[in-house]
Amino acid sequence: MTGQVGSRTPLSSLSPGEAGNVVEVGAGPSLGRLLELGLLPGTRVMVARRAPLGDPLEVRLRGFALCLRRNEAETILVETVLVETAPVGAGC
Amino acid sequence: MGIPAGQGSGCGHGGAARPQGADLTVALFGNPNTGKSTLFNALTGLRQHVGNWPGKTVERAEGVCQHAGLRLEVVDLPGAYGLYADTPEEQIAAEYLRSGAADAVIQVVDATNLERNLYLLLLTLELTPRVVVGLNMMDAARARGLRVDADALSRALGVPVVPLAAARGEGLEQLLTAAVAVARGEAVVRSVAGWRDRRVAVAPTAEERQEGAARLYRRAQGLARRVVRQEGPTGPDLTERLDRVVTSRWLAFPLMMCLLGVVFWITMFGATPVSNALTVFFDGLARTVRQGLTAASAPPWLVAPLVDGLIVGVGAVVSVMLPTMAIFFILFALVEDAGFIPRIAFNMDRLMQPVGSEGKHCLTCLMAYGCNIPGVMSARILSGPYRLIAILTNALNPCNGRLGPMLALSALFFGSRGAVVMVGLLTLSMGTVLAGSFLLSRTLLRGQRGAFVMELPPYRRPTLVRVLATLKDRVWGTLWRASAVAAPVTVLIWFLANFPRGAAPGDTLAGRLAAALDPVGGFLGLDGSALAALLFALPAKEIIIASLAITNGLGASLGGAAGLDQALLARWTPFEAFSFLAFYMLYLPCTYTWVAIYKETGSLRWTAVGLFLPLGLAVAVALFLRGAGAALGWA
């Protein structure tokens, strides 16, 4: 578990399986695209895995999966939540 | 009853003019990965025409569909995630929807991914009320235990919602009936108060966009929660289980290498018998035509170039190109349809970052192994500087046309170790792709930022229909265009090899060209006959072997390569053969690829870069090999 539940942390620092609620969507180069995909304040997101070489991350939200580079995920702040038994995301 | 008048778009056809005889125009729209293309193909079959949207390098597909005695023009809008015009696709879609050119819009929505799909649907409804929702992938939803209440969704949105499984052909008739009804104003379309008042795509500030997106997503989420029920267990599904293997730290790269190896192996060995059969066919055709023309007393100066030049030449190209490309692209489409392709980009991205590129670049390289022309066009999946880098480095990947001769020559000079040599050459080509990307991103494209955000859709079972649909454009279309360019050059080559009449092989124009190029060749560690052959092979790399036969004085047409093996073995050392293979693999794109690069970049300047970059890298490699060879005593 990364830090305490409820703490604000960049999305990039979550470990696979950890989830959080988006608090702030930073000003990365993909801001417009991420908004369209529904990565907004209040959205529940979960980090499903990291790529074999560590980057990018697979992030699940709103029933689908997205990959995001670490430098983008660093600009997204989330509030961590307890990992549920039924994880959020595509096909789960 | 009826559609609220005056709201949204009018009845004009501000976009494309309606073709003769079409009664109604229906547009298809939706997110990527919703089965929209499958639906388009199912509706229009072979009666479709693919081009580009005016002024843009975005594909425009239109077709015709008959329904209930009406002729419907179907326009396939580019898939998009939003309508705020961040990308050319979104710009095109927004303009088209706003123009009112469509009498009805079929929005294809993925039933297994409803919330995000509803966001785009809500945006579309802000532009036009004449929408029918095609609730697609109902079969996949059922398989996952998802139940979607189409009627409830329809009541909430105020537009018809038709459940579909386009890949299986389910629901198509009902969909068209609903679309026609909406287009004619016969469907009950309830104007949902408040939605039509908002304007879309004029929100300039980041805050306003965020607020707009948040508002729509709140609605989308509410709707999705109301109409979707999850029945049955929700353990890790097939997609999750496969991804644990495909993207695992230890298995990912070996698996990808194996996949590539298997694809190449099947392509090369599957294609050989078909190639041989085609060669026999073209030989027969040439003989028949020659006999026919001679019997009809056609003049010899016509018969020879037509038969020995054109038919034999084009035959040489087609008999190699067609089977290898067909097999390769069938295999590629299977892998693509199953959903592995995005995973390859996901795995490779970290390797591409240091050279200023991204994961999807590797996908264009994979396409390039089939043929550089679809390879260059596939760079449309990238954006910004990444797209240019992919276009300009695409030709560094050896296409099937090059791989065949490379394999043959490797086997000739290195026997059973030829496979190792091939792996070495492929590694070299990957290295030049990385080097080229690095150079471009640090010089001509310096400072331009790119982003990598990519959806990972679920895996699915490939279907033959979807696989075969890709062949038409990637194989058939390419073959015709490339042959059209190659054909006149084969005649020219015949001319060079046969004039002056009666001259000894070394004195023909081709022979003299080879001799003249000896000094240049020597500089690169090659000989003049090799360089001349490389020039001949520019329209179609496949003909290198036959061209070598001509420039080595062994044949006067592209059909004969007898005795070439012995001639080359006598002339080149294995190291020289390797240098030749490396240069041949890299030197220049084939002529139709030049055209494709120009069409995709719209710029002569970038096209020039697309020629000089590979040439420069090929020369650098040749010089390096020459130096290394001298140092090691191999040259």
Keywords:
heterodimer, A: 92 residues, mainly beta, 6-stranded antiparallel sheet, 2 helices, 11% helix, 36% strand, globular, B: 635 residues, alpha/beta, two-stranded antiparallel ribbon, 8% strand, elongated, disordered N terminus
Structure, described:
The complex is a heterodimer of chains A (92) and B (635). In chain A, 11% of the residues lie in helices and 36% in strands. The two termini of chain A are 21 Å apart. Chain A has helices at residues 31-36, 70-73, and strands at 8-10, 19-25, 44-50, 57-61, 64-68, 76-81. The longest helix of chain A has 6 residues, at 31-36. In chain A, strands 1-6-2-3-4-5 form a six-stranded antiparallel beta sheet. Chain A is mainly beta. Chain A is globular. Chain B is elongated and about 85 Å long. Chain B has 25 helices and ten strands. Chain B is α/β, with parallel strands linked by helices and 635 residues long. A seven-stranded mixed beta sheet of chain B has the order 2-3-4-1-5-6-8, sandwiched between helices. Strand 5 (64-68) of chain A pairs antiparallel with strand 10 of chain B.
List the helices and strands and how they pair.
The complex is a heterodimer of chains A (92) and B (635).
Chain A: E1 8-10, E2 19-25, H1 31-36, E3 44-50, E4 57-61, E5 64-68, H2 70-73, E6 76-81
Antiparallel strand pairs in A: 1-6, 2-3, 2-6, 3-4, 4-5
Chain B: E1 24-30, H1 36-44, E2 48-52, E3 59-67, E4 70-76, H2 88-99, E5 104-110, H3 114-127, E6 131-136, H4 138-143, E7 146-148, H5 150-157, E8 161-163, H6 172-183, H7 206-227, E9 228-230, H8 238-246, H9 252-295, H10 300-338, H11 341-352, H12 360-370, H13 372-377, H14 385-393, H15 400-414, H16 418-442, E10 453-455, H17 464-498, H18 509-516, H19 518-524, H20 528-536, H21 544-551, H22 564-571, H23 574-586, H24 591-601, H25 604-632
Parallel strand pairs in B: 1-4, 1-5, 5-6, 6-8
Antiparallel strand pairs in B: 2-3, 3-4, 7-9
